[in-house]
From TrEMBL:
Residues 1-24 are annotated as: Disordered. Pfam families: APH. This is Aminoglycoside phosphotransferase domain-containing protein. Residues 1-12 have a biased composition (Basic and acidic residues). Residues 13-205 form the Aminoglycoside phosphotransferase domain. It comes from Streptomyces daqingensis. InterPro entries: Aminoglycoside_PTrfase, Kinase-like_dom_sf.
Amino acid sequence: MGGHTIHLEPHRVTKRFRGPDGPAAARREWRALELLAGHAPGLAPAPLQAGLLPSAPVVAMSRLPGEPLRGQPLDERRLTALADAVRALHSAVPPEVLSRVPVRPGRPAELTSQVRSWASQRRAHASAEVTSAADRGLRWLDGSAFADGTAEAGEHPPEVFGAGDGNLANYLWDGARVRIVDFEESGRSDRLFELAEITEHVGSWVEYPLDADSFLRRFALTGAEHARLCEYRRLLALVWLFLLSPDEQGEARNPSGTVERQAARLVALLA
């Protein structure tokens, strides 16, 4: 198991990483904090101290003000501030620096392989609604740009620095602007994939739904980019259907009916 524990002080946050991926996650977190401190100061916590030994990786950073966007209604001001923060993150790292940043984990090829692994181990007692949506998603996947496990959706787009996690709990609103925390999955990425990560994360709709269309209108996307973004959203919606399926089988971490709602989201995106 991976993950981390967090120790909060008035002006300092200390993350201790655990599990097989702990050392790599700590390095990604520290790299992001250093890059953003140099190229977009104030957007993310300031790096304070790191201990990156494999046996006990730990990263300390400044504590930012604000409340997580997850779990609260997102009005026009918050949506605009969220889009501004995401745009600032994506454009923060100059291309010549970004080219030396490792690719983030969890890209489409990895997700496609993971979905197929989950599909081969599916339990027969999933509800008919969830089973039908998963079957439709898997049929779509077999005919998509991701079918061979290597292709991206469409032509390779310009790369950006991505947070790697679309959870709105990592976006803090202080009443005037949004700042970003949690970079353990960060790295070089595709802007459209990062936008899809935000719109399709369960945290963007299970409580107070993010208006995905309104959010995405705040980015200048071409028709081809919209089409590629749709493919990424479909892939991530399928991933989330499998991730949430244990909730249906007595291991609930989300409100009742979340898996069925995810199934409906996937079907709508595939329509």
